[in-house]
Protein 1
Amino acid sequence: MTDLTETDPAAGEQVVKRFMYVNRKAPHGTVYALEVLEMVLISAMFEQDVHVAFLDDGVFQLKKNQDPGRLEMKDFSKTYRALEGYGIEKIYVEQESLDDRGLAAADLVIPVEVIGRAAMTELMAEMDVVLSA
Amino acid sequence: MLHLVNKSPFERKNLDACLKHAKPGSAILLYEDAVYAALTGTAVTDTMTGAAGTFAVHVLEPDLAARGLGTDRLIAGVRPVDYGGFVDLTEKASSVQAWL
Amino acid sequence: MKYAIVVNEGPYNHQAADSAYQFVKHALDKGHQVLRVFFYYDGVFNGSRFVAPQSDDRHIVKRWAGLAEQHPVDLAICVAAGLRRGITEEVIAPGFRITGLGQLIESCIDADRTVVFGD
């Protein structure tokens, strides 16, 4: 599917695909948010074009001041701050999803690019691989 | 892009989220409990009738049959496919997004 | 066409494992290749050797193994998700193997299509 992939000349025949990790679920109630994050971190090793999207209840994953330690559960919200260090910088949060939940960009643990639903739609349509949970 | 939806629209919002993010003309496959969205005479029939005009909406017939439903109750424009058709849809689309 | 498949849910509790199996079976029947079925989240339970359904029910674990016997499909269980749930080398069924998350990303790169089955 050469029409879907780009070849990076510097990396020889290395295939670079557009990956998107779609987060639509809130943290803690289920394990998905944590295990998607683990998947995102591993993907950083593959030199792919990685996009991480937060929409619907997924935006709650980035809420500041989470304290799941109160429940003896793991606090992985701090790990989102490490993404940049792994070279994962394309992090998108949907504006409408924030608005619907009474949140703003200032409520989030990391700086993100807030985009509207129409832009999210366009972005999703451009992906080669969409991994959701 | 092919969008996969597998949740009942009466219980969860996955289908709603999909419809809000799918580009006009893209393919949608309703399977597992999402097949309930493909029927006439329900609270989502009007929405899905509209969706069938905007998107290429398909429903997985074996999932309908498993639930005691026939293709006679399908909304006009919703196309039944079998598992072979499901595979063909993934082949035709440039990528696949599961709305979980 | 080459496929990478991801299974996010365990057997019996959710239809995802059945849907994924049916999809893989029909893709293979059509002559497509399925490079890898990657079991993540509770999907790791698809590879438990201790699964023992009633005799009149399908055996989801053996059904996967049967596919992999007939076709070059890699049945890969995520090590991290597995450890978290007690699915380790000692308890996996014949036909499955335990591997890292990197193998998931790798199969998505190598495949023409990635299809995720979950909740």
Protein 2
Amino acid sequence: MKSAGPVLTVLIAILALWYAGAVWMNAQWVRDQAERAGQTVTWEQIVPQTMNQSRPVLPAPHQVAVELWKAVVVTPPTSKRSLIYHAWVTLSATLLGFAIGTGAGILLAAGIVHNRAMDMSVMPWAIASQTIPILAVAPMIIVVLNSIGITGLVPKAIISAYLSFFPVVVGMVKGFRSPDAMQLDLLKTYSASRMQAFWKLRLPSSMPYLFASLKVGAAAALVGTIVGELPTGAVAGLGARLLSGSYYGQTVQIWAALFVAAALAAGLVIVIGMVQRVTLRRMGMLR
Amino acid sequence: MTWLILAALVWAGGWGLNVALSRSALAATRGGRLLVPAIFGAVILFVWEAVVRGLNVPGVILPPPTAIAERLVENVPLFWQDFQQTFLKGALGGYAIGCSAAILTAIAIDRSPFLQRGLLPVGNFVAALPIVGIAPILVMWFGFDWQSKAAVVVVMVYFPVLVNTVAGLAAADAMQRDLMATWSASYGQSLLKLRLPAAMPFIFNGLKIATTLALIGAIVAEFFGSPIKGMGFRISTEVGKLSLDMVWAEITVAALAGSAFYGLVAAVEKAVTFWHPSQRG
């Protein structure tokens, strides 16, 4: 709790900077309006007018807060104007993809640890794939699956599965290899089979690595889903909100969608962190 | 049908070869470690080609690798133009600005534990957020050209590099700092001669993470609006025209650019942090 003070200070500083930025960036519009009306405006007149424009260059924080309140609390979640609705569309695709990607990643990692040929063939590619912008394939996957009649949740889930897959593979291979030679030798002296060694030693000791890669994977999966929602022509989801906001110059809407996306990402990471703490404590790995 | 049988045979043969290679003495050598994944990659490409031909998969769903390679060779000037626009201007420009800003910020807040305690949790939090989402806003602010892409890249790379640099500046241990103090080294001297060098492995970790983010940021930002060139523009328009061979060719270019960029930063890291245990092998 001793960092609460500093963090609060930084957050207040960010808020102050944001307000200053809103005044500075929106002032031009006020001046243009005044010039058209043949008036001159002073700073005292400009500042209040920068706070509540309908299409500001940078919306003031309270405008975003009001929009968030309207779109999250006031509007019923079934409405297409509700951000809860859009957030759910994005979250469900993310979770499905994340589950598929993580499951497949753990399976492949288990295969890599137990099969030397697989290790040597696949592992360099899995590592190299982390240096390339995989996200660029998202529009293609969406359009191709659309053209063969698969729409809705599944194409987006495939993208987020793909994005969360590689971090999990790389992390879990490290995790399954984390028990040291002494421990593996001990199991050998017990004449444990490879399966027993996997379930009783490798899997439990990979848990810290699993949670670290789950956090990376969850963030990647969310980004994947949001980008996957862009080329569908802005139907539903947070990505669609971003895109339609940018088409129609609705900056307040973009910022509100961004905040919901940030909250989703933070929520996912926090939930994984909580599961991590409970699991590791029960396993006695956390003091 | 013959194509499918051929694909199955090549797959089985390649896999058998890799199993044999990985058990042989060659597996311990450098050449063997390169050969096995190369064989695997080549087999995957061949199976892809053969299955697409054997099942007559239409080109609008999955083009064969040969068609992609053909497009790539035919349109070299076009891809070079896209590469310049997206990579050299957008990604590289933003990467340079964002990383140097982050490193300078880290050095600036280094003297204030208060700011560190405040900025680090915030930085860690922001690093996990879907920052590409700010792309539409920055495209509105900075226009359609590469400046807006560079701005997205700046924001994307800033926080990972900041967090890593701050961690790195704390890496020199108390004994070493005390030694510098006994030599009555000034703050600047101890920063330049001890703490920055000690921070290099951490800084490069951040820089390497940032290479991928930079390219992703530049490409995704182009989905929100761009002049009629650039990798992201090419991908989204060619997807719209259903000419997937062009899309795959552009993705190949992006993958090569990404790996080369990462490799370059890793090579610089090797030269700078030659003293670190992880580099001495």
Protein 3
Amino acid sequence: MSALDIHAAPRRGLPWSRVIGSVLLLMVAALAALGSLVVPGDPFAQSLAKALSGPEPAAPLGYDHLGRSIYHRLVHALRLSPLIALAAVATAGAAGLILGSLAAARGGWIDRALVMLADALLALPGLLLVLIVLAMMPGTAVGFWAGLSLVLWVEFFRLTRAATRETLASPAVQASRLLGFGPAYVFRIHVWPEIAPMMLTAAAFGTATAIMAIAALGFVYVGMRAPAPELGLMMVELLPYWREAPMALLSPVIATFVLLLGLTLLAGSREQ
Amino acid sequence: MSLLKAEDITVRDGGTTLLAPLSLSLEPGEPLVVLGETGSGKSLMAQALMGTLPPELQATGHVALGNRELNAGDPDRFRGLWGREIGVLPQEPWLSLDPLMRVDRQVAEAHALVRGLSRRDALARASVDLDALGLSGAGASYPHQLSGGMAQRVAIAAARAGGARIVIADEPTKGLDAARRDDVANLLLTEMGETGGILVITHDLALARRIGGRLIVLRAGAVVERGTTREIFAAPRAAYTKELFAADPENWTPRRQRAATGATVIGAKDLSVARAGRTLFSGLSFEILAGGILGVTGPSGCGKSSLGDALLGLVAPAQGTVARTPEAHPFAFQKLYQDPVAAFPRKRSLGKTLQDMQGLIKGQQPKIETLLDALGLDPRLLARRPGAVSGGELQRFALLRILLRQPRFVFADEPTSRLDPITQAKVIELFVRTAVQDNVALMLVSHDPALIRNTGDAVLSLDPASPPVGGELAETTPAASFGVS
């Protein structure tokens, strides 16, 4: 009846940004997984004679100031931060999903307490929270995982709670409950399809945030400890030699950029 | 001379014709009504006349406006006429007014931007316009402070501010109570006056009759019948028009009210319900027997839906009790929703949803295939999602899902208010037949008193205006043993 009814459904093209994002991420993943198989080598082996020298077959990206192969350090760094980030996002996502649905379904004091906790965490700068946890477990991947999970779950919690509350109040859920369906069915059939796309977006953004946080803390020497190959740490170690070896400095920068761009494109291209 | 003359207006979407060639003319002082159900192409026709069709649709034909000739296939040429020659009264105008802007400013905006008046002159003209529509003093209000009817008048003032002599009103009574319908019709007729022209697009028979003038009946993009409104209403010639008029609840043959014999399924005793601190009704007592139909009517906001929700235990009563028959299983009390699309899981096919229902119930149960057949539904629809079937079909699917539960009581909350009259008549007939056959107690809620009057075994009218406190039973049928106090 309304003018809107007859509008044809928008022609759905291929979501280009999502395709490009996935390709970028696949490239990075392939480098991280297969890099040391294609060119075998050790990211920790030093040979000071080769310090800051250019690429050669055994070290396709040249050597750093201690004569370590930048290629192999990069391959290892690209395994480390994404793995920590993915673990943190998985933990945070699960926690946020469970607590968010609990708050939405139960309401009352459980809801108020969880919202208050989430708001309190949101008021703290995220990096500060990670630093506090890292102060207890300095320089470890587990410390990063715990700290980042603690920061990231709030976003998942808030999204889940808001969407679940709305869905639970809908006539569709009321009808299902009247017909005798239990909470498991309501969650699986009504709630999850509504929040799943949002969760994917939040997970991609969360992963990007986590990778950036690990790199940022590495860059200011409070994250992973040398000699661990880590993106931020590599950048700060190579920074003094930017004049002699610009490509050496640019390698971790470009790798980080490609990784974050891929994640952002993947996250940001949700239709409408 | 005609204000607007359209010749052979056709609308196509690629190869499919959505509107077959249609010609019409709009004369000064004589309204033109286009009547049709959802999907009849009546809104498309208006859009083709305005040059506002979505870009993926193609229009052909000629439109003559005063001394200008326009080609419907070249919609960009129409843009200069918007507001100056043709004004559009939007559907549900309270949604199309800017909620953050005082209403006199909204009308003045059209004077200033379309006619190019200075700000001060525009405001002065706006207040004259509002005065003329009986809105003196309302200029400083915001839209949320206005009633639906007042918002409609503001929208009319804004639509006419650019000097448009032709007003196209697309479903002007959508979302309004029956009581407001006549106000809207009077308003449109007054606005038209002797020299203006109005084109009213509607599915509302009462509005069409009230507007009068000439009438075009559309169905599936083709003209079924045309003539003066009075003659067509007096003696429709086309079979479809006859069917359409017969489907109007006013013209239904009243159901023979039966003396109820069954046992009480559900009852209310001294029931009061409050929402947001306001008592909707109080002291309501009644019983519904198996196979009996209680019709509930009243204006919007009177608590019709809350009454049903209270019976189902979805809303806690402020006072009083609800008693259910103890022999019914806990899920034998069911609800049918106003908007069936919102009552189904959005992203699940109907077949899967129904299978879920079957999987939940142990023991003997009705077969989906048998019910599909009984409700006249095509099994192929099972593969679709709720958004992809028509409203009438989906409402029947909602009934099917409930029947799988073998209900004893069904609360149908405005189940047909979004359906066109012919579908409404079929769906209501089906509901009533099912209730009687399966011995289900039915509480049917509608804002349409005629529908309730011609359907219910007893009628409960909740009108907060008449009784001092809460609702009262304006009409009951003593024959049916609905213990109503």
Protein 4
Amino acid sequence: MKIDLTDTTASKINKALVQGRRAIGTPAVGMVLTLVIVTDEENAYDALKAANDASHEHPSRTLVVIKRVSRSPRDRTQSRLDAEVRVGADAGTGETVVLRLHGEVVHHAQSVVLPLLLPDAPVVVWWPVNAPLDPANDPLGALAQRRVTDTYAAEQPVRELSARADTYTPGDTDLSWTRITPWRSMLAAALDQVTCEVKAVEVEGEEFNPSCELLAMWLADRLDVPVRRSLSGGPGLTAVRMATNTGQIVLDRADGSLATLSIQGQPDRAVALKRRETAELIAEELRRLDPDDTYASALRFGVERLNPSLPVPEPEVAPKGEEAAVEAAAEASAPEAQAEAPVNDAAENTAKKAAAK
Amino acid sequence: MSSSNPLRDPADRRLPRIAGPSGLVIFGVTGDLSRKKLMPAVYDLANRGLLPPGFSLVGFARREWQHEDFAAEVHDAVKEHARTPFREEVWQQLIQGMRFVQGTFDDDDAFERLRGTIEELDKAQGTGGNFAFYLSVPPRSFPVVIQQLKKHGLADQTGGSWRRAVIEKPFGHDLKSAEELNKVVHEVFGSDQVFRIDHYLGKETVQNILALRFANTMFEPIWNRSFVDHVQITMAEDIGIGGRAGYYDGIGAARDVIQNHLLQLMALTAMEEPASFDADALAAEKTKVLGAVRLPRDLGRDTVRGQYAAGWQGGEKAVGYLEEDGIDAKSKTDTYAAIKLEVDNRRWAGVPFYLRTGKRLGRRVTEIAVVFQRAPHSPFDHTATEELGKNAIVIRVQPDEGVTVRFGSKVPGTSMEIRDVSMDFAYGESFTESSPEAYERLILDVLLGDSNLFPRTEEVELSWQILDPIEQYWDKNGRPAQYASGTWGPVEADEMLERDGRSWRRP
């Protein structure tokens, strides 16, 4: 059921929520969290749909905060709050309130949201687009245990990654990181299958996709070897190649759904690695609400430390057309023909340089 | 293996527990359990990304099938019964490792072919020699399959690989047969390589008993004889024996359900806090409490068995047990059993545990009800509390998983009147609507070698020690009471509790 409220207040919205629950006959609420979605009118529909789907796994009260753009000076001085309260079948398994903020109240959204939070339950804020640069110090972000951003939706994803690293506060997280969980899981499973030492890694994927950088940084951070980020036409991530002392391990996904895992000396295997819907990403994100230290560590590794100057030991099947991009990003310094052993030292040198900047 | 893997980190909680390289061999793959539960569970695991790349599924049955026929059968079973949506790419991953071996259990050639298939899969799919054998076969075939596995070297673990056996209930039909079965199995597989499936233990709600009791402070202080009046554990089915006459007749409700499911639920409800949540510590506590179970002195007074008679069940006419196809009209098999047990330890002395199970009862439900004593003193007069029952915590295992707390509350109005109300926590309301099926969890645990949720040899034998005297008494004395289908069991069961001044909950 739906209740529309025009020019209203948080306490009237609370009343409407109770009224809605009574009307559909379920006065008890088992909702486990409050999800606050901060968005513009354009993205509200998709975000809410994803949140409602995710609510089948995590029943929640969803508050959609839509900041309306004022088009005249008079609009800006007037302040108005409109709300749409949905309970029952219209709201997934929880409750939804769509809040439309006009005029001055746009800058005081937290005053509307605070009284509508569920008692005791954790709060998650999600910005599908236009996330603040410092989510933890945003007035809405400050209310939350968990702050979900999405660098994929940013104008300059890679630059935004660096900014996120600078302002990282425990509880921050990024859907671009959530997107690569299946990849990380499969790569870890691949290393379960063979005992080997990884010497170098290449992560290949489309341009402007920060998931590739995050995956590369995670690998570099965990394995402590040089990691090269190379470009392909997508979709999304297309391949990860690990050069090891026992041969190559390649996870290759050309079509965005079915990947092939090749390990030298073992048969090739098909692996399902489908690109996931936003609803699935949000559902994963809501599964754990404690700080994600692995993400923090990968993020802080730093984009600039990827693509170290040394050439990666050449893979047998070198994909074409990516060399140039890598070369441009790399600092050309070390002699070409260097053995495998000093690779680590070189990576450390690069790291020190990066840190000194 | 994974300890040296630099990409694994305990702090990285997003990465799921993926089984290592392995395969699953199902004997009796054409059976109902395999089609309705096992195959869908394997697919659901693959769909959730929890199976290793190259995971292989081998079917073994008498039917004349090619690999493709088997794959088509799995495909249909998955489409019909899987919990998660069907996705082509997941199917493509699975189908590469699907094989079928045709043969009977005494056919040496077939087991040689099975060995060849496993070796071929190690090469083609990289399963590394790690295989679990799921025996979804009638109990009389257990020994021959186990022996065949031994004879053809299929149970040998070489070079760090593992071989595991998964067996389903019934684990024998009394203590003696259970011991024999255990001997047969353990001759071939080590005790840590045998996984006994009690699918109740794979259910989220059952695991939640431990969370409820040991992760909270508010329940454990009252979880003892000072506050608890009695405990009722119920597993009711609304169906009859269906087509299982051959299996069921002579076994009966007590052996089929009480021996495994209900005694396991009782052990989890009554046991002390384990030192840790690992398999050894859990088994130690469960064994302790099962060892402390004491039977009633007068078995005729404190046990009841029954048979469903013709009647109406949920709007449908149902025939009585003795009129079912394939059942001897003089059968004494129980389709309903209720027993009273006590636990002789400091926590529970004097608190009766009433266990009941039956077919063709009011509705399908499994629950554990811990019923508390009345308040020792009430400042309210008798009329005010006339409608007030005893407080209770009810753990609903299935369906509609959750926990209900019942307590008294004032009825709105001018007079003081107190009545029972329920406070409810429903799993589906607070967590996922789509919590994993018990079999998913259990198959994954087998592949991971995690035996937390599997009853051990000692537990099985202790359970038979509890049930055997009751079965022997029933054999010698009287006949099962008749109860109309669609009711909550024979009146004798109600009288049994009435004598103790209590009554059965209507679940």
